[in-house]
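TL;DR need structure tokens for one chain.
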Amino acid sequence: MQQPIQNTTLSPGEVRKRVQMRTGERGDVRVAPSRFPSLGYYYWFLGNHEHTEILPHAKPIVRYAGPTTRAVRRTFADAGFIPGPKNCKKFNVCWGSPKGIGFYATLMPGQVCNQMPGSNAMGRKDKLSEYIVAAQSRVGRDIYGFVPKTYILPQACDIAARDMSSNPGVFYIYKPALGARGEGIRLLSAGDTVPNDKPAVLQQYISDPLLVNGFKFDLRIYVLITSTDPLIFYIYNEGLGRFATRRYRAPTLKNKNLKRMHLTNFSINATSDTFVNPDSGKQSAVKKKSAIQEKVERIRQIIDDPQGIPDTDKSDSSYASDGDDGADQNDDECLFENFPSKWKASELFQYLDQHWEYFDNDDPQCVTRGAGTPGNGVVQQRIFDGICDVIIKTIIACEPNFYSLGHRARTATAYPRLNFGIYGVDIMLRRNGSPVLIEVNSSPATGTSTRLDIDIKYPLIAEALNTIGIPVEKRTEFDIITPTTLSEEEKRVRSVRERNQFLQMRAKTAGDAISGRTPLRPSRNNLDRDLYLSAGTVPNLQYALNGSEPPTPVSQASSERPITSASVTRGSICSDERLPFNELPFGTTQQSFHVEDFILVDRQGNVRYALPSDATLQFSELERRICMQISDEAPRCGSFIRLFPTRNSATYMQYFEHRRYNTVLAMAYVCSGEAWRDLL
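>> reply
TL;DR here they are.
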């Protein structure tokens, strides 16, 4: 059982300090030691500064690949990061929208991107539906019954039209596959034409949503994926509750175009004059549309549905005299000044735990059945457990895509980790409290239009970066905190030599594509020529591409530092002090055991996962690094709660399409107690 969402984020003082920093102002560069001395240090972001040290003269670089928000920029500035030029190749962190496989394949040790190969597909509504349908056919519709009936368009356009005509009283919601912020969403019913001109999904409208004070709402839950092989992901200990700004009524032909009644998207409701600001408690729009935006939206509405009525104040008023089918003029007044349109998920859960009158208590499956008395925490725990169940099953359904593209991009098993992903999972609750998956956002909004957003999203970004761990270049255990004594010329020479060695290792495994039949040809594009040019020399391509050792001048060899005992660890490839990030390149796939060695079946047929005795002594370097990552992230994850792998999530292993060796190993390690000291 997972712990319920609690309001345990970082202190308001720490968040306030960041918000008040002036543009261009940078904080100190702080580093925190890894639990494993051989892994060195990580850059430390907003949070507890205990056990961290200031790294003087360090200038880590962040590359912004696309539009960014103040929350993102201030998080990096507070940690001492410097924005790099557009399309720069020398960076520590790349923050932006999803990229192509070619970009991920160019990431070097010490570089981290906030997107993972395959994340864009999970954010597409049609692709996500395909993954869910595949999981339903594999393990059963009852296991994956948390999504409404869905038609994937345009493939199922004829089937959807036939079902709509045979069910005249049922409404459906149309969503473009690549839509965002509620754009292009509309309600359809019998007699409406099903669009077939672009990828989209058509879902049966949820007819029994849970209402609070008569208003529809959904939950934005944040998920962090730090690895895809093995699969490792977390849930954030805080989220958002987003309310519609018009009192809910069952959809009819007259009110089906009222977006602020049927949709809970913040971008739609934030422009409403009846939006109750959570900061002031007063009705006021936190976003204003420009005249051009209003004209564009009106044109889009006319093009998409010539018979429809735009969701504007003028069109809304035309329904005021239509009885129950329209919107009562006093409806908006029911969103009291003390009832904001946006909540913290923790506060909303506590509110629902105390107010059972909103639930359908007669439903045998209601979360209030047998829960005792209101306010005892049982209901919010059941709701949270249901949400965790939906998230775990959803990511497992998408795992084959993450695995395939991660290996094609050659990042899936590279250490230190080159990718992570923050995802926004939108959940709606039915009247019995059961969760329904609405969609997954591969690039959730980090804008902070309210103080509530600041309190949630600033710590969210910082703690995600702390969890994944942005590695600091590994020298020795002493000069990681003090400035190096090498001259600038010696540092440039050393940088070139270290990068050369990595390129040699990458070139040796350049033909090991995932299929084994489509080798990846090394090319000049794999070399960071800008880095070498800035270092004063360009390496000989024949050495970098054929894997041979380039000759080292005596003057350069004399500047090498001896390898100390502190930098030598068990294993092979990671013990060389010349590898600046203790890297383990992609392609290291030695397996010391078989999958069956980690699986135990008792007399009752129950499956358990455990490591064989003294397994850590037989681990290959890759197996050690997998287990080290799990235990190394634990003290840094802050308000993130690991959902998988855990002892409680071991039962979900049966839902995977394939039993991946690394994922089974990770589960066995966790179920065996995470004896991380055996890995030192």
